[in-house]
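Exercise: predict the fold of this chain.
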Amino acid sequence: MNKENLFQAIRHGDVALWVGAGFSLYAGYPTGAQLVKSIYSKLSKEEQQLISSELPLPLFTEKCINLRLGNRNSVLRAVVEELRIRPKTMKYHEMLSKVPFIDTIITTNYDELFERAYGDERIHKVVQSLDLPFINNAKTVLYKLHGELANPASIIVSEGDFRSFYSKKDLLLWKVIEGMMATKTLVFLGYSLDDPNILSMFEYVLGSLPSVMKEAYLIAPNLNTIKVKELAMKNVVYINSTGEDFVEDLIKYFKDNLLLDASNGVVSGDKARAMLKNLGLNFIGSLNKEGVSIDGLYKQDGTYNYELNFTMKGDSVYTDQLRKLDRGEILGAISIPYSDFLHIEFRAEGFRLPVNTEFLYIEKAAAFDKLVDLLFDDGVSYSDLHIKLYGALGKIKIVVRYKHVVMEFTVGKIRKGVSDVNFAITHDDKKFKSVSAEKEIYSLLSKFASGESFKLFDVDGEVYSNKIESRELVKYADGMIRYFNDLNAIERHFSVVFKNMDVESNYYSEVEMLANIINNSVLQIKFEVPYKVDKDENNASLVRDNIRGGKGDLVVTAKCKYNMSFEIYGKEFGVEFAKTYLIMDGYIKEGEKGNSKVYVVGSKSKKAQLNYEYPATDNPPFNISV
């Protein structure tokens, strides 16, 4: 429970790490005793007779400096030589560097492991008071209390150095540290209280803490009961763990909780994204009232690992479907309501994903899953298609990801050379990307369904060949191509561009009509309902002879002017045009409309030709000719 509380404090950005030399041992750096023996071996025989190599490091270096009449250079040079080595590994410092919730690290170490792990772009180093005005809080701030290897004069190594520093010689820097002690939860990591010198330093730091303070934590292995009780009296919580195990557990905590916390608004989406970015990951999602709706993860190099663990209820009707899916008797995915699970956990790259839907969709792994190039027999080719193939009980399912769409073909039995095909197409974000992009997509679809053979090639050569023939699918694809050709005509005529169009918006009739108008199209149409026009002197003089004469079939021209506006994908277009009907096998006869006498104009064959005229001329609205 203590560890859980600490992890929650870290999650809230409430922690400052206070790191000692014990956390550098795994990287191959020497202990204080090993450093003493190394420096001792470099002393002259006369000096070795006057100093014991069993002394703690601060006392040993103090005596070395006194032997040399206060000259610290040789001691500092020896320390720098021993510690300026290439680390065997930086695993745990690098793991800590992935956690953006820790913005303050205080260390008494001289080594450069934190600087190496974080890099200059993510850490700001403070060694002395003169560095304080230049702190960049956008980075993790690293306070090196005992100095750094890059500046040997700053290194605190002897008893005299420690007395000077902890008697607050560097007042301003120590005041800043004391301020953090009052406001942050301190976590001491890499300190062994069995070392008298470290215990003395630790006691001094604890003595500097304000009387009213947040809990502090000490991470150390196998501390005896008496020391644990003494720490508790000083408001220090003991966690029995090595520093390395603690870091492992911290990363596991974030993998278990980070995305759930982001989806619930406990941590910000920006913080969650920052940690994922540090690990080469990102999430797919959007903001909502509670937090971030997270739909999945993706890895920057394109490869990722998913893991699903679940236990079904014993009476679930979906258990049999799962068995059939596993045997290949079901093609594609099955959906199971979450209420049918006793337990379910979904992870991506080790991160537990929140559940945002009422159903789980499970799909068997594809028999073929590759990035390929596509070549048709007539030489038309497409590059970089991600294709998956599934097969079961005489059916083949082909899933094609090309650019911004996913096309799914389920191909069944072939009758008279034509495939039984079910088809679905899904656009990213439910948007038509652009007119030209959609023409390319539906041209590909039309080729796929045309019955023409195609081959798939990966980097090693041909890997698959097949053909699909579906007249209905070709008809659908060609209809969509005409639609985007019409949109393209509108773009050119009105100097506009259609981008990111809502797939679910229906403008098919408007687009077709506006394109016909501006293209002055000629259409063959049905003419089943006759016209009725007023029987006035103007019209009478035009049709009088035809009513009497019975001169045979008529071609009747009826022209009407219109002024219309169209709204298409948020853009408005106004046009003035005329529609002229050439009525084939025409006839004219007298009739009635209410109490009025009218002329009835119709077609014996019920056929007509519709001509669009744009822009419209000023011809009479009604005209008849033989």
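Check your answer against the key: The chain is about 35% helix and 35% strand.
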